[in-house]
Amino acid sequence: MWIRRASDIASSEITPESVYRNRRHFLITAASVLASASAAPILSGLAQSRSGPYDATEPVTRFEHATTYNNYYEFGSSKSDPAIYAVNFKSRPWKVAVEGLVKKPAVYDLDDLIKGLTLEDRIYRMRCVEGWSMVIPWRGFPLAELIKRLDPLPSAKYVEFRTIIAPDQMRGQRSSLLGGGLEWPYIEGLRLDESMNPLTLMVTGIYGKPLPNQNGAPWRLVVPWKYGFKGIKAIDRIRFVAQQPVTSWMRAWSQAYGFYSNVNPKVDHPRYSQAHERRIGEPWNPFVGNSHPTLMFNGYTEQVASMYAGMDLRRNY
Q1: Is residue 108 part of a domain?
Q2: 5, 60, 228, 294: which could form a disulfide with 265 (CB 3.0–4.6 Å)?
C-alpha cells in the first residue's frame, strides 16, 4: 500500500493551522456553552445535597470541563477529540456479551441486563496519570449487584472488560496514530474483590443526565481509587476468568501501567510525578503548578486499603 509522505502533499491541500484551530475552538466552545446552560441547575442542586457516605467534599468540576476534556483514545489522543468526534456514536441499542466462568453466560440487551439494579448518585474524585483530576457526580449502580446477578463460578478470580469494536464510528480504531498506538479492543480488568467493593460503579449517567458519548455512553466502569484509564468505556463484553487479564495499557507499556494502577503519590509514572495534581477548571498558576497533593488511593484509603494488606504497592503498581 502506498503511503503519502509529507513531501507528496501539495500546499493547497493542507488546511492552514489558523483555520484548523479556529474550527476546533468553535466546536469545543459551542459544546461547552450548551453543556453549561443545561448543567447549571444540576450543579446547584448537587451543592446542596452532598451527604452520601462516599461523596467527595471538594467543589464539583463544571459540566463543560468534564465533558470536553477527556481521555478516550477510540476517538483520538487529544483531550478535545472525544467531544468533537463522538457526537454521532450510536449507544443504543446495545448488546453485552457475558462470558467465561459464570453461571449465566449470554448475550444480553443492556437494558434487560441492568433492569432493577439500584441507581445511586455519587460524587467521586477522579485522578489521571498525567497529573490532572476532577470531581464528578456520577449516576450508576454498584458493580457488585450485577456480579451477584450473573453468579460467577468459585474459580473466577478476575473480571475482564472489553470495549466495543466500531472503527466505522471510532476514528482512533482506524488509525494507530489517532488511537495512540493502542491495540483494540480496549481491555481492562479487576480482581473479583475489587469488583465487589462498594465504591466500584457501573455508570450510566453524569451530572444527573444520561452519560454523554464522550464520557463512555451507554455505560462505563468507574473505580475512584485507581487512575482514570482503568475506567473502561462503552463496554460490550464482560468475562469472568481465573487468571489476571493483560490490559491494553499493560500491553502498550507495562513499565508505566500496571494491572492495579492504584493512585499512589510515591510511585511515579516514568514521564510524570504523581506527588501533586491539577484540578481541571481551576486557574493555572505557573508559580504553583499542580497545587493539590495527591492522596493515597485518591483519598479512599479507609474503604480500600485492606484489599492490599501485605502487598508491595511499589512492585504491584
Answers
A1: yes
A2: 294
